[in-house]
Amino acid sequence: MAIINQATKELQVKIVYYGPAMGGKTTNLVQVHDQVQTAQGSKGKLVSLATSSDRTLFFDFLPIEAMSIKGFKTKFQLYTVPGQVIYNTTRQLVLRGVDGIVFVADSQYEKMAENVESLANLEENLKTLKLNMADIPYVLQYNKRDLANAAPVEYMDFLLNNREVQVPSFTSTAHKCEGVFETLNMITRLLLNKFISQSVRTAA
Ligand SMILES: Nc1nc2c(ncn2[C@@H]2O[C@H](COP(=O)(O)OP(=O)(O)O)[C@@H](O)[C@H]2O)c(=O)[nH]1
Ligand SMILES: [Mg+2]
């Protein structure tokens, strides 16, 4: 779970945006970076480690400082992974120490196989890190809803959210910032609730 620094009263939380290549992960971080309103100086730089303009080869990284929770200053670190199948080692590295996951799916019908493959790859990579998907707060984002060939939400839920207890899912059009903050707010809420319930248990 998150890095908790009792001395400085800081809570550091790592959120990874995962999903197939070109689904809109980087766009989410760019939108958050553009719109986030924080106290002066606390908005971090968006760092993109990529070797070409629109394909993430390593990751994007965006630190955000948020409000205090129970006297702890919370810092969210947002990461993306490269979606292309061949970069699995990088994905495993980025997933290390993950606290919460946003799975960004591409709503286009022809991308469904890639979505399903990427979700299976996520589960597999978490296993190699001895992590269980059921224990990690995660949310789904069905992106590119503006496109004519977007599949119905029910179909995407059937393919990607087919579990006993469904996780929250959001529709989005990331480049117009629709659904971006709804998604981020939900994953941060899930993470903070987990932190609060754990700290209550520790204190008891
Ligand atoms: N039509 C449409 N295009 C989008 C949307 N979100 C992102 N894109 C575009 O899809 C492409 C890939 O997005 P990017 O964020 O780089 O995907 P990543 O590989 O998952 O990081 C870019 O050209 C984006 O501008 C969306 O909701 N609708
Ligand atoms: Mg990217």
Q: What is the C-alpha radius of gyration, as a whole number of Å? A: 17 Å
CATH architecture: 3-Layer(aba) Sandwich
The largest β sheet comes out as: 8 strands, mixed
The helix tally amounts to 5
Shape summary: globular
CATH superfamily: P-loop containing nucleotide triphosphate hydrolases
Order of helices and strands: EEHEEEHEHEHEH
Features:
about 200 residues; alpha/beta; Rossmann fold; globular
Write up this protein:
The chain is α/β, with parallel strands linked by helices. The protein has one domain: Rossmann fold (3-Layer(aba) Sandwich). Helix content is 33%, strand content 25%. The chain contains 5 helices and 8 strands; from the N terminus they run E-E-H-E-E-E-H-E-H-E-H-E-H. It has helices at 25-35, 88-95, 112-128, 153-160, 180-203, and strands at 3-5, 10-18, 47-49, 59-69, 72-80, 100-106, 138-143, 169-171. Strands 1, 2, 3, 4, 5, 6, 7 and 8 form an 8-stranded mixed β-sheet that branches. Strand 7 (138-143), helix 4 (153-160) and strand 8 form a beta-alpha-beta unit. The radius of gyration is 17 Å and the shape is globular. The two termini are 19 Å apart. The model has no long low-confidence stretch (mean pLDDT 86). Magnesium ion is lined by residues 25-26, 56, 80.
